[in-house]
Every structure is written in C-alpha cells, then in structure tokens.
Design a protein that fits this description.
- The complex is a heterodimer.
- Helix content of chain A is 45%, strand content 14%.
- Chain A is an alpha/beta fold.
- Chain A has two domains: 23-123 and 253-301, D-Maltodextrin-Binding Protein, domain 2 (3-Layer(aba) Sandwich); 124-251 and 317-335, D-Maltodextrin-Binding Protein, domain 2.
- In chain A, the strands form two sheets. In chain A, strands 1, 2, 3, 4, 5, 10 and 11 form a seven-stranded mixed β-sheet that branches. A four-stranded mixed β-sheet of chain A has the order 7-8-6-9.
- In chain A, helix 6 crosses helix 7 (177-189), helix 8 crosses helix 10 and helix 9 (218-225) packs across helix 10.
- By secondary structure, chain B is mainly α.
- Chain B has one domain (19-268, 280-546): MetI-like (MetI-like fold, Orthogonal Bundle), CATH 1.10.3720.10.
- In chain B, helix 7 (143-168) crosses helix 9 (184-213) and helix 19 packs antiparallel against helix 22.
- The longest helix of chain B is centred in the middle third of the chain and has 34 residues, at 326-359.
- Chain B starts with 11 loop residues before the first helix and ends with a helix.
- Classes of the chains: A alpha/beta, B mainly alpha.
- At the A-B interface, helix 1, strand 2, helix 3, helix 8 and helix 10 of A face helix 6, helix 10, helix 11, helix 13 and helix 16 of B.
- Chain A: Pfam families: SBP_bac_6.
- Chain A: It comes from Bowmanella yangjiangensis.
- Chain A: Residues 1-20 form the signal peptide.
- Chain A: This is Fe(3+) ABC transporter substrate-binding protein.
C-alpha cells in the first residue's frame, strides 16, 4: 500500500526539483524576432537560461492571472504602457529590486512610481505626410487636422489598435474628455477611407496618393526604408515625418516596457534581466534593429532615426495613460472611429 | 435493434464517453455562465454604438461564405465526379490545396496585390495617368473582400464532402433516372444533389462556423464583426465578462446553425444504397465544354492557391534563404507532430461520440457533445481562456489536496503543457471531425449491421469488416481536415503553449502582424508544404479506395 504512494511522491518531487536550475521565465508581448537576440546575449553573459513565451499582451496577462501563485512567469514584457499599468492594477507585478540603477537610467515619467514597471524603449507616433502634396508649414498641432481643408486626406488605422487607444488616452488626460471627443470626431470627418490595415498600410496609402497624411509609429517607416521589398522602400521615400505639437504638449510617445511578476519563482534573475535590457548594448540593439528610441539619455538613437529629426515628447506620466484605456475606446466608439 | 450491443447504463464505455463529452463541453459552458452577471453598462454602450454592425456584418459574412462555398464546392465536386475532361484526376486533389492556406495569409497576399498602393492599381494609374478617385476598382479590404477570401480557402470543405457523397451514389441511380427520360441537368438537380444534401450542408455549416470564428481576416480588412467586437471589449475595455457575453451571443447564432443543419438531415434517412459500386462511367462532353470545365477548375485553383503561392514565393525570394536555419526546421517539426497527434486524438473522440449516438441515442451524452461542437465557431482565444481556467483549477485543487495529505506541492501539472494545447484543439475542432464521421456513418444502413451479424461476425467484426471499409474515406478526410486546421491554428496555440515552443503559424503571424510580410513568407510557405503532403497522400488513399 505504501509503495505506490512513495513512488508517486518521488515522481512529484522530481517534477518540482527540475525548476531549481538557474533560469528565468519571460512572458513577452514583444515578438520573438525582436527579443530573442537580446535574451541570447543575456544567457551568454550570465549563464542564466531564458525560457520564452511570446503572445498577445492581454492573453499573457490572463494566463498569469489564471496561473496565480504557481505561475512560472518571472518577467512580463509588453509593447505599450496600458498593459503594464493594467498588470499593476490587477496586482500581478512586484516592485523591482536593484532599482538605483534603474532609477538613474529611466526618466521618472517613463516608469511606475512604485517601480513595478519600467520603460525599455520609446515609440513615437508623429504625423507623416506626402512630400509632393503637403508642405510642412501647413502642419502644426494634431488638433489642426480637424480643419475642413484636410477633408478626405487623412489615413489612420482602426481604433482596435492599441497605439491609437494609448494616443487618445493621453489626449484625454491632457485635453479633457470633451475636447478629445471633438478632436476624434474632427479626425473621423476628414478620414480618406474607413480605417483598415496596419501602420505600414497607412504610409503606403499616403505614398500612393489615396491620402496625404497618416498618423503612424516611426519604426514602421524605418522598417519600410530597410525592407527587402524594393516597393516598400520606394513608398517610404515619398513620405516624411512631421512632429506635431512642438510648441505645446509635445508628440505622443508610447513605450515598450517590463515588470517583474508578483509570484516570480526567479525574481532575482528577472531583476538581472531587466537591468540587462536597459544596458547600453541592449538599448543600442533596439535602436538599430527596430527603429525605436532608447529610454536612456546616454544612448544615441540610430542614424536612420536621427534623420527623422529631434522632437519634444509628451511629458505626462505614462501610468495615467494606461489607466484611461477604456475611456479612450468608448470615446472612439462614439466618434465613429471604426 | 441493438446489433452492436448497446451499452448498459453503467458500462465502462458509457462513462468514458460521458466524461470525455462533459470535459470538452466545459470551456464552452464557462463562457455561457458569464451571462449570469450581465454587464448592462457595457451592453448599453455597445447597443448605442457598434452592436448592430457586429450582428449584421457577422451574419452577412457567414451567409455569404456559406452560400459561396456551397455553390463553388458542389459544382466543382460535380465536375470532377461526373465529367471526363483534361486533368480531371489531378483536380480531384489539387482543388483541396487551398485548405492549407490560412485565411489571413491569403488576405495579406491579395491585399498586397489588389490594394490601392499595390502593383496592379499602381500600374493602371501609371499606364492611364489616373489619380485617386478617377476610376473604380473593387476595394479588397471590405466585407465583400473578406467573404471572397474566406470562400476561396473554405470551399474545399464542401468540395471534399460532396465529392465523397457523389461517389457513393450508385451508378444504377443514374441509369434509372436516364431511363425515365431525365436530362443530366435534371439528374443533377433532382437526384444527385438532394441525395448528397447532408454532406453538402455539413460542409456548408463548417464553412459558416469557420467564418463566424474568423478574426485575422476581418481584423485586417477593418470589418467589425462579433469576433473583433469580443476582442475590443475584452482587451480595449478590459471587460472580460462582457466579452464572454458577446461570445455567448455569437454561440446563439451558431446554435441555430447547428440545429438547422441537424434538422435538415433528420428529415430523411440517407443510407448508402446497397450495391457495390460499379466503375463510374464518366460523361465525356463535347470538346469546347471539356475545356470550359478545365478552365473553371484551373481558375479556382489559380485564385485559391497558385496566386497566393506565387506571392509568397516572390516575397520569400526577396528575403533569401537565411531564415532556413536549424530553428526553422524545429518549428516545422513542432507544427507537424502537434497537428498529427491532435488529428488522431480528435478522430478517436469523434468516433467515440458518433458511435455512442448511433448505438443508443443517449441525451445525457448527446447534450454535451452538441455543446462541444459549438467550439468550432468560437474564436480560438475564447476557447483558450475557457481551457485555461478549468485546467488551472484542477492543478490548484490537486496541489492543495496533495499538500494536505502528503505535504507535496505539484504546482501546475497540466497548465502550460502540450496537454492543454491538445485539449483546446479538441474543443475547437471536434465539430470538423465529428461532421465527417457522422456523415460517413449515416450512409451505413443499420440492416448491414444485421446482415453482418447474421453472417456470424462479432460486433467488433462488423466494425472492422463492414464499417471501417465503408468509413475509410470519411475517416481519412476527418484526419486531413483537422490536421490542416491545427497546422494553421493560431490564437489558442499562442496563449496555451509551453515555454520555448513555437509553431510555423506563430512565426508567420508574429512577422506578418509586425507588417513584415516579406519575412513572414518563408514560414507561411512551409505551412503550405507541411499541409500539402498529407493532402496529397490522403486524397490518394481516398481515391485508391474508389478506383
């Protein structure tokens, strides 16, 4: 009678001890191609094995929440601030240790005040215009795009997209609900077509003449300029970046970021990885390979990004942007932004 | 009546069947339970703004795809079955190939080609000096575009089922109808199609369910449907209850579809009419008609397969072979082995349920099976969450129990393993397999069981010597369809997979969703190749049986 029980116990203890090796488990909303090289470097330098699952941020959050205290996740990596803030509010994150370094490297508005999440890179969302049909002097603030002169000339992707949701959240935080609704309605009125496709598709539509102005993240333009497909490079060359709202609040900026999870079995290693991802090498890698802006002021952005020009970014604390997401989506529903 | 002994109330088979059916129904029931906490505020907001769009677009999409797939699939099946024309025997399996293309991939391909900024329209503009708004061109990114894309990859469901059904029709039927003075057209409309109706409708229902569940295509085309609405409500508004309630509403539509399909099948008992099949004498139409038939089949093949294939090859050519490293082949192996395992397990489950129903219709088993079948129309993400919750509950309860009894902590035993994936696939794709097995089994007359028994066969003997040979084509089709479906499956795999476990579909999606279509081409091509192999092998096996 005792025997099968002890065999079972032995098996079970074997299962549990496997996890004791030096490792760190990453749940990442960053696509594999854009995180694996950095993780491989980390393993090379520290000998700590990195296990990775990529996926949609929301479903990763659901998974962490469902797994609860047994969740193997150590570090959560997302590509926008809304999800990080959400993770914090759902009580899925813990404060990072080793935070002197992190505090020094990451500006205060780009991290959580309780150190539960930190920005890794910045992603700017400016206006992009057709060189041959729009003069940069015609452009100034995002709000000016609601003017009747832009009727049928603007392309933006769907409001299902998180970048638009975060942009509108930030606007609500800075302009208030009413003014943002006006702005959204005005934009929708000037859409050249119902929103469809991704950011690259908006840029391509500008290049092809379907619209004159697009709102898109810079790394999509950078990606097109370095694409293997020549037609993408051609299209990207017909388009230029304009930084809106330089005389007031600045251009909208979102982040990719990370936080250590609440029940992280390897919290210490997760902290090490977090610090590593903010190291100069890693920061430079992201700037070079995905056209994103480093969060550290002592790391330069890539030559390609410098070509888009310097700009002033929004300075509101990003955690407030994350908290506004639902309001933003409902507002866009009301404005008829599909 | 009970020729293969019907199981008693406490037999082992019955409890296994019942347990399996209940477990598979669980994730879907979980979604339904969300209705007990109505989210009035969100519903009010949705009703004021976007709900009508969701309902209308979803219905138009499903019915458009259903109608299109039915007409295209049935007519192609009839051409290949009834007529002799150049390349006919090739088209029999070539026309299945679009199955291997994920709907969102074909959508990317056609958008690349037909979009305003694409090569076709650009060439038109450059040739004629037109600008935006000077000319009319069909907008690919629209509801109509989405319907067309889905028809192109889903018609093979109808084609495959209809073709099997036509094959089973006895030659003497044709002769009888001819001798009564009916024209071939009349035979097609009045005899062949009505007799193949359960198969055709079954295929159509599958296509419609897949259309209801589609997310990738409609999202890319900017068409608001239930699935995009579920995602917006869940992720954008962070309200998973309201999202689950939207899913429950979607299931209501699908439930209607399933009941309609079952009802239409129940009206007549369709059984395979006795005779051993004679060699099919195909009609040889006049020269021009033969080439018309050839062109029709070629056109569908070109649009559904060759053109997207050419686009992918073009993109893959641009990025070069550097992607084909060892890790890439590992992905291919993961995809292939996972799809095959899932297809076989789901086939066993489907046979278990189909036989349970045939031997003794047991409402206690039928009810959860009907519920589990709805899984095919739900977006994979919803199923994945429905799977994750009960599995985590099981793991945590087991851990607590063992802690209390032996002081051992087991942590997560099933969550985050391949088991979780296979479970979710079973919920998602049971309907596909079950449809095939049930339509196959429906053609075996109960009198054949009796004949077999009276000739001294044991119940197992009836199964292996009477049923299996007759079911062969259906079972192979079931394996093939689920295999290809799992190969393409994305959302559930994305959420549930273990650490460091990627598939081709995941790699393709990650690159494509970053709008790096050229880079996504190589893994997408490999999905096609991995899907092609079984399509070719199995359709050969199916053909051999009828040769």
């Amino acid at each position: 009678m005792l025997k099968p029980v002890s065999v079972l116990a032995l098996l079970l203890s074997a299962v549990t001890t496997v996890q004791a090796a030096q490792e760190v488990n990453v749940y990442s909303a960053r696509k594999e191609a854009l995180i694996k090289p950095v993780l491989d470097d980390f393993t090379k330098q520290t000998g700590i094995q990195v296990n990775l699952i990529t996926g949609n941020a929301d479903t990763l959050l659901s998974r962490i929440a469902t797994e609860g205290q047994f969740s193997p996740a150590d570090l959560l990596v997302t590509t926008d601030v809304g999800r990080l803030q959400w993770a914090k509010e759902s009580n899925l994150l813990q404060s990072a240790q080793a935070n002197e370094q992190l505090m020094r490297w990451v500006p205060a508005n780009l991290r959580d005040q309780d150190n539960q999440w930190f920005a890794l890179t910045k992603r700017a969302r400016p206006i992009m215009y057709a060189i041959d049909r729009v003069k940069p002097e015609e452009l100034n603030r995002l709000e000016d795009l609601t003017d009747a002169k832009w009727k049928g000339r603007i392309c933006v992707r769907s409001s299902t997209n998180i970048y638009n949701q975060s942009m509108v959240s930030a606007l609500i935080e800075q302009l208030g609900e009413q003014a943002t609704l006006e702005l959204a309605k005005g934009l929708v009125k000037n859409f050249a077509r119902p929103p469809k496709g991704g950011d690259r598709d908006q840029i391509k539509a500008v290049a092809a003449g379907q619209c004159d102005i697009a709102i898109a993240n810079t790394y999509y333009l950078a990606g097109m300029l370095t694409d293997a497909d020549k037609s993408q490079v051609e299209a990207a060359k017909k388009v230029k970046v304009f930084w809106p709202n330089q005389s007031d609040r600045g251009t909208h900026v979102n982040i990719s970021g990370a936080g250590v999870t609440k029940h992280a079995p390897n919290a210490e290693n997760a902290n090490k990885l977090l610090v590593f991802m903010l190291s100069k090498d890693a920061q430079q890698w992201y700037a070079e390979h995905n056209g994103e802006y480093p969060v550290r002021s002592d790391v330069e952005s890539s030559e390609l990004l410098k070509g888009f020009g310097e700009f002033k970014a929004e300075s509101i604390p990003l955690e407030k942007v994350g908290a506004r997401n639902t309001d933003a989506l409902m507002l866009m529903n009301h404005a008829g932004w599909k | 009546m009970a020729i293969l002994r019907s199981p008693g109330p406490f037999s082992g088979w019955r409890s296994i069947t019942l347990t399996a059916a209940t477990l598979l129904a669980l994730p879907i029931l979980l979604v339904t339970f969300s209705l007990s906490q109505p989210q009035w505020l969100v519903w009010q907001h949705l009703a004021d703004t976007v709900l009508l769009d969701y309902v209308l677009n979803s219905l138009m999409l499903a019915f458009g795809v259903g109608l299109g797939a039915m007409l295209l699939g049935t007519s192609l099946a009839w051409c290949c079955h009834h007529y002799q024309f150049p390349g006919r025997s090739w088209f029999e399996w070539l026309l299945l190939l679009p199955l291997a293309i994920p709907a969102y991939i074909i959508a990317y391909c056609y958008t690349g080609l037909l979009d305003f900024a694409g090569p076709l329209q650009t060439t038109l503009r450059e040739t004629f000096g037109w600008g935006y708004g000077d000319y009319w061109f069909p907008e690919i990114r629209s509801l109509g575009g989405a319907i067309t894309m889905l028809i192109l990859v889903l018609y093979p469901y109808v084609f495959m089922l209809a073709r099997n059904a036509f094959r089973d029709q006895s030659q003497s039927l044709l002769e009888a109808s001819r001798s009564m003075g009916q024209s071939p057209q009349q035979y097609f409309l009045k005899v062949a199609v009505p007799m193949a109706r359960p198969a055709i409708l079954s295929g159509t229902a599958l296509a419609m369910m897949e259309a209801f569940a589609d997310f990738g295509t409609v999202e890319y085309f900017g068409v608001s449907t239930f699935t995009t609405g579920i995602f917006r409500t869940w992720f954008g508004m962070g309200n998973h209850l309201a999202a689950a309630q939207l899913s429950a509403l979607l299931m209501l539509f699908v439930m209607g579809l399933v009941l309609w399909e079952q009802y239409s099948r129940r009206k007549i008992q369709y059984y395979y009419q006795g005779h051993k099949r004679q060699t099919q004498a195909r009609t040889r139409p006049a020269g021009l008609t033969r080439w018309l038939l050839f062109s029709f089949c070629s056109l569908v093949l070109a649009l559904g397969f060759l053109l997207p294939l050419a686009m992918l090859l073009h993109w893959a050519w641009l990025t070069g072979p550097e992607q084909l490293d060892a890790r890439f082949w590992r992905l291919a192996w993961n995809s292939f082995s996972l799809a095959l395992t899932a297809a076989l397990i789901i086939l066993l489950l489907a046979m278990l349920f189909a036989y349970a129903k045939r031997l003794k219709s047991d409402p206690l088993i039928n009810a959860p099976v009907t519920v589990a079948k709805l899984g095919y129309a739900l977006p994979g993400t919803v199923i994945a969450v429905g799977t994750m919750v009960p599995l985590a509950w099981f793991d945590k309860s087991l851990d607590a129990l063992l802690q209390a009894c032996f002081g051992i902590s087991t942590g997560l035993l099933l969550s985050g393993t391949v088991f979780a994936l296979l479970f979710a696939y079973a919920v998602r794709f049971l309907a596909v397999s079950l449809h095939q097995v049930e339509t196959g089994l429906a053609r075996v007359k109960p009198s054949m069981d009796m004949a077999g028994r009276s000739l001294g066969l044991s119940p197992t003997g009836v199964f292996s010597q009477v049923h299996l040979p007759m079911l062969r084509a259906s079972l192979l089709s079931a394996v093939l369809l689920v295999f290809v479906d799992v190969l393409k499956e994305l959302p559930a795999t994305l959420i549930l997979r273990p650490f460091n476990f990627d598939t081709l579909a995941i790699r393709t999606y990650e690159l494509a969703s970053d709008e790096r279509l050229a880079d996504a081409a190589a893994p997408a091509l490999l999905i096609l190749v991995a899907g092609l192999l079984p399509v070719i092998l199995l359709s050969r096996a199916i053909n051999k049986e009828t040769a």
